[in-house]
């Protein structure tokens, strides 16, 4: 029995040893800071440096990003939301951001330059949101900036569509929105090194008893 276990552990260690060590880093699938907008977007930005300003009363209510991947994988997504002028958070005149992946809603929220009015109404993706600036003229004269981190997004083989849309906006002179710093990266994979380290003591123990 001991000999059998020893052989099994030896084989296990050997297989780990000949398996290429997986990288613990994440591979960037797509990134765009809109300095030179990528062609994957459904709408050409009227500005340089961000996608916007957007308002359904003058241009579009939603924008989509199409990304092709060769196989199914899990990715993390990050993007910055820019709010202009009096874009409303969760209050009397709530403006709603909806973000979806391949038609499935990932989050719905309301954001403004007033932190108390920032609210994730629906968050099935487990996204986290942090406020970058509020109440001052931020990047491109925006009055609010929020960074969204959406973890463990499941991507399918072929084309994947990411969609951002805003509802209930007032006229353009009053409020608008935009996107910046959109990045999609694979989820880091665990290294095989810890498994190898875990197996070595057992191998040494059985060999000693043998």
Mind explaining what this structure looks like?
This protein is of the alpha+beta class and 210 residues long. The model is unreliable at 11-23 and 192-200 (pLDDT under 50). The chain starts with a helix and ends with a helix. It has helices at residues 2-18, 193-209, and strands at residues 28-32, 51-54, 62-69, 73-85, 96-101, 104-110, 119-122, 128-134, 144-155, 158-167, 175-186. The longest helix is centred in the first third of the chain and has 17 residues, at 2-18. It has two helices and eleven strands. Helix 1 runs antiparallel to helix 2.
Fold topology:
Elements: H1 2-18, E1 28-32, E2 51-54, E3 62-69, E4 73-85, E5 96-101, E6 104-110, E7 119-122, E8 128-134, E9 144-155, E10 158-167, E11 175-186, H2 193-209
Antiparallel strand pairs: 1-11, 2-11, 3-10, 4-9, 4-11, 5-6, 5-10, 6-7, 8-9
Helix pairs in contact: 1-2
Strand content: 35-45%
Measured on Cα atoms, how large is the radius of gyration? 24 Å
Order of helices and strands: HEEEEEEEEEEEH
N- to C-terminal separation? 11 Å
Poorly predicted segments? 11-23, 192-200
Overall pLDDT level: 86
Note the main attributes of this structure:
210 residues, 2 helices, 16% helix, globular
């Amino acid at each position: 029995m001991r000999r059998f276990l020893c052989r099994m552990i030896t084989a296990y260690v050997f297989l780990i040893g000949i398996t290429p060590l997986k990288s613990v880093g994440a591979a960037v699938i797509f990134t765009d800071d809109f300095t030179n907008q990528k062609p994957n977007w459904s709408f050409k930005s009227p500005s340089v440096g961000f996608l916007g300003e957007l308002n359904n009363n003058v241009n579009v209510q939603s924008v989509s990003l199409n990304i092709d991947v060769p196989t199914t994988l899990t990715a993390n997504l990050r993007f910055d939301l820019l709010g202009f002028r009096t874009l409303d958070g969760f209050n009397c005149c709530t403006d709603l951001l909806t973000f979806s992946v391949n038609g499935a809603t990932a989050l719905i929220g309301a954001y403004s330059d007033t932190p108390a009015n920032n609210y994730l109404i629906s968050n099935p993706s487990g996204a986290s949101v942090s406020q970058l600036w509020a109440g001052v003229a931020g990047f491109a004269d925006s009055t609010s900036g929020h960074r969204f981190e959406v973890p463990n997004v499941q991507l399918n083989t072929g084309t994947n569509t990411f969609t951002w849309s805003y509802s209930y906006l007032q006229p353009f002179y009053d409020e608008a929105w935009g996107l910046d710093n959109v990045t999609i990266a694979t989820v880091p994979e665990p290294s095989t090194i810890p498994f190898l380290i875990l197996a070595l003591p057992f191998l040494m123990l059985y060999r000693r008893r043998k």
